[in-house]
Specification:
The structure is a single chain. With 411 residues, this protein is mostly helical. The chain is 64% helix and 0% strand. It is built from 18 helices and no strands. The longest helix has 29 residues.
Length: 411
């Protein structure tokens, strides 16, 4: 498929405007307060805006605000904290910033889809993404998924705009992936992977991967150095990786999130980095003790991540129980799932080789690489449908690519 023509830019702008309007209309009328992880992100953002640093203040009033932390990734609290510093602490900042990020992701997904599929398929996939209730609801909450999705889509777009990206585009992609890694550390896997998926000789792919990876490493290094000095040991970005591995491996693991207790291991261990190393050892020991049980958990992890889209509805009920009585809550969960399924199932169909179907275009190949890397991460840790929300824009690109056809050759 040839690159998107300028003639479709009005459609891109219209889709972005529609996505922005839907998110602003919901966010400004409903005003969803922080819940679950959003409470911690929002508290961390307030602390950073007030110059208190990234400390245990985010865990609640009982925590010592002088103790630095890196347990949760700093990216989203830093992003929101910077906005709070400029515009003041307000729920409107969360709503407007999230709505703008969501609209930007819709625009990027549309431009990528135009490079991978016929225009009509690209328009419809982006339209479904723009109005899908799950992304609309979650975009206006203080959660990190919308920011991560925008950064991933931006990185893929930077790499897919030309058959052979320039060094500047590679550095831009590396910068966006570094920002995404601050939000979701597993994005580090994409630094060598995505540029290596582009066409070219092995040497050229290696040079591209090296430049993107070096850019990411240079931008992540300052925070790593901070962690080495502030914590009881070095951590690249965050220290929750060990507990995430243990959640997906301990004997009582189900494939989805559970709260670890001292009975699972690591009783009495002090220090964030020490606890992370302890949970890593617990995870490895659990896998070694029952490798087949751990492998069997792969299916429920995949199921919990991709089979439904219910977390935004559950978040809304937790944050505003006055809005969602049980019947309405169930209807909203169903509506979110039934708008997610057309994108997800059609994206899977795009992977089937058919006689008259062209190979995947670079935009679709890069989108598939990002989705595959995230999937592999959650096979190692645990699943949950909130973790596919940063990928909805890239899944929309793959869904549009299901309708690609091999160009007709004149006789």
């Amino acid at each position: 498929m040839s690159p998107a023509s300028p003639g479709h830019r009005p459609v891109t702008l219209a889709l972005a405007a529609l996505a922005l309007a839907a998110r602003l209309a919901f966010g400004l009328s409903v005003r969803v307060p922080p819940a679950w992880d959003g409470v911690l992100y929002e508290r961390g953002a307030v602390a950073l805006a007030r110059g208190l640093g990234y400390s245990c203040y985010l865990f609640g009033p009982a925590a010592d605000p002088s103790v630095p932390t890196a347990f949760y990734p700093v990216g989203y609290p830093a992003f929101l904290g910077a906005l709070y510093r400029i515009f003041g602490v307000s729920s409107a900042v969360v709503v407007v910033s999230g709505a703008l990020l969501g609209a930007l992701t819709v625009a990027l997904a549309h431009r990528l889809a135009l490079r991978a599929a016929p225009p009509l398929a690209a328009h419809l996939a982006a339209l479904l993404f723009a109005l899908a209730p799950g992304p609309v609801v979650f975009a206006v909450t203080p959660m990190s998924e919308t920011l991560c999705g925008a950064l991933l889509a931006g990185a893929v777009y930077a790499l897919a705009r030309a058959p052979s990206p320039s060094s500047l585009r590679l550095v831009v992609a590396g910068t966006l992936l570094a920002a995404a890694a601050y939000v979701r550390p597993q994005s580090l896997l994409l630094a060598p992977l995505l540029p290596a998926l582009l066409a070219g000789t092995a040497a050229r792919r290696l040079r591209r991967a090296a430049l993107v990876t070096a850019t990411v490493a240079a931008l992540v290094a300052p925070w790593t150095i901070r962690n080495c000095h502030a914590l009881d040991g070095c951590a690249v970005i965050s220290t929750n990786g060990g507990s995430n591995l243990a959640i997906g491996a301990v004997p009582r693991a189900t494939g989805m999130y559970l709260t670890l207790t001292a009975d699972d291991g690591c009783r009495g261990v002090k220090g964030e980095r020490a606890r992370e190393r302890c949970w890593q050892r617990v995870a490895v020991a659990s896998v070694r003790a029952a490798p087949l049980r751990w492998l069997r958990l792969a299916w429920p992890k995949l199921y919990f991540t991709y089979a439904n889209e219910t977390f935004p509805a559950d978040y809304l009920r937790e944050a505003r129980p006055d809005l969602l009585a049980p019947p309405r809550h169930e209807r909203l969960r169903d509506a979110m799932t039934w708008t997610w399924w057309p994108l997800w199932v059609t994206a899977l169909l795009a992977l089937i080789p058919l006689p008259r179907r062209a190979p995947l275009a670079p935009a679709a190949t890069l989108s598939l690489g990002a989705v595959a890397a995230t999937t592999a991460t959650h096979l190692a840790v645990f699943g949950g449908d909130r973790y596919h929300l940063p990928l909805v824009g890239l899944v929309a690109v793959l869904a549009a690519a299901a309708f690609r056809r091999r160009p007709m050759v004149p006789p």
